[in-house]
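INFO worker-7 received task bundle
INFO bundle size: 2
INFO processing item 0
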Amino acid sequence: VETGQGDRPGVDVVMNSVEIIRNGKEARNFDAVKIMSDYFAEEEEAIAAMKKMVSDFAQEIATQKESAEALPSGLKMIVLKEGTGEKPKIGQKVMVNYAGYLEDGSMFDSNYEEVARKYERYDEERKLGGGYEPFPMDYSPDARLIPGFKEGLLSMKVGDKIRVFIPPHLGYGQQGSGPIPPNSNLVFDLEITGMFGE
């Protein structure tokens, strides 16, 4: 083939075939079809395991909701861990860990790193920005939170961990929000880890 400027071919070059010569035992034993087949089988297993985990959790929260303490507002809650700290005063800031779920067991947000990883929602940028640390929140009836989250939070003392079952009218209602469909029942795990600034 004649070459021109920059050692480029003067005419288009067309390859009609490529022959890969496999040297060595590993190269001769390479089975691309098997490797791809194994990869897709592993992916299917991972998807099935995730679906089972979500389904099992949905069953767990449905069972817990049946026996949860019902408040006059319609909020239901159970205590997952009894804390030993003091009850914050209205107007103070508390440090909160949370995980939010839909009733089908799927997680839509959490600042628990282990929960985010478990649900394959971990985000390295969020980690770098401190997004998996306890979050400062106002301990106040005027806090800018959905009503059910706020009501659950105001029932807690430092060290408590609770699960709240929030009906749509105490959540995002008819409009929904982001990944939360309209009229969704929500489930939140809430934990007050301490007071802001301590």
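INFO item 0 finished
INFO processing item 1
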Amino acid sequence: MNNIKKKIGLIVIVLIIISIYPIYKTAFGSKNSTSTANEKDAKVSAVNFDKTTYNLAIGNTYTLNDAISPNNATDKAVTWASSDTNIVKVEDGVITGMGVGTAKITATTVDGGKTATSNVTVSNREANDSIITFKDKNLEKNIRYSIHKSTGVLYKSDVKNITILAASGQDISDISGIENLVNLQTLNLGNNQINNISSLKGLTNLQTLYLEHNNISDISPLKSLTKLQILGLKSNQITDINALKSLTNLQTLALNFNKVSDIEALSGLTNLYSVDLQSNKISDISPLKKLTNLHYLYAESNEISNVSALKELTDLQNLSLQSNKISDISSISGLSKLNSLVLADNQISNISSLSNLNNLQFDLQLQSNKINDISPLKGLTRLQNITLSSNKISNLSALTELTDLQLLELKNNQISDINPLKKMSHLQYLFLQGNKISAEDQKALKKALLQLKNIYF
């Protein structure tokens, strides 16, 4: 009897060991290949929606964006379900309003069964919520992208909340239909083929508008956009800017590369901070004289000869008047806040009015003028870059104390003595081509300025 009990006991012990062995392997690890592979898999820990509630009109669509955590999860597949498909239909995250009511949209991860939900309320359209269309399919494509509605009929309610539209370089030629985006604040339509902007006249909430590089000649529709602060009209076919008179909130205006000759419309825009008038047909800049808030003025490549209007613009920091017909620059002697001044390619011989511009630091360009005396520059010790090429300069002694200079261009002058340059310990780039400098002096200068990156004789 005792032997039978012992045998039964042994059998029970063996059965217990067999039953707990898999548990032992799981708890204390196993070195087989299956376990190693599982360790490499990144399991899904959570799924979330960008919107947990959403309001939708019947017939409208919206794409719910699901975010899987962690980002490197191996299997990010998700299944979608609606609690009531008569109210909201869902397919691959795209929800469509079907009937009035509220339905719960659920996304469930294939890996781990994690869920996210969003309550979608569907309502009838308002009586005045009409269908809208866009003749230009490229414009329509950009608008659909901004509202996450790739297909289906577009209604006014779909676009009424758009405040920013970036559609630069999209091959757009017709902007009709954009008048329905009544809450637009920022609009970029640059680098397209637009010639008619009449559809913009009702977008009175616009604060920033870019229309550069188009084929626009008539800007009269802009006169009602009185909230505009930034307006970019570069590279168009504009001749008449009278429409700008009413835009008194403008702070930044780019009119460069057009065909403008009369800028009287700017005379009352006293909030202007930056104006670019480069490459037009302007000869009279007197309308600018009251724009005392101006900090940046660019008027290169025009027909300007008289700069007396600039006398009172004492807040100017950057001034560029390259390629004009200027000979007298005495009016800028009081512009003491200037840190960059470009007067290249004019008819200037006397630069004495520059002697008080002690804040000039970043750039002084005087190339291609008629200058022979540069002594007024001797006190401009903060200057880092000076271009004086193609003048009549022979004496460089005024530059001796300008030890902060990093770039100095003196090409095509009448220079033979370069000893004043030997103390320029910060100079990196030196251009002296087209002068009469001996080989011996060239060698001595190179030895004195070992820090130079480039020197040209």
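INFO item 1 finished
INFO post-check item 1: The longest strand covers residues 101-109.
INFO post-check item 1: The chain has five helices and 23 strands.
INFO worker-7 idle
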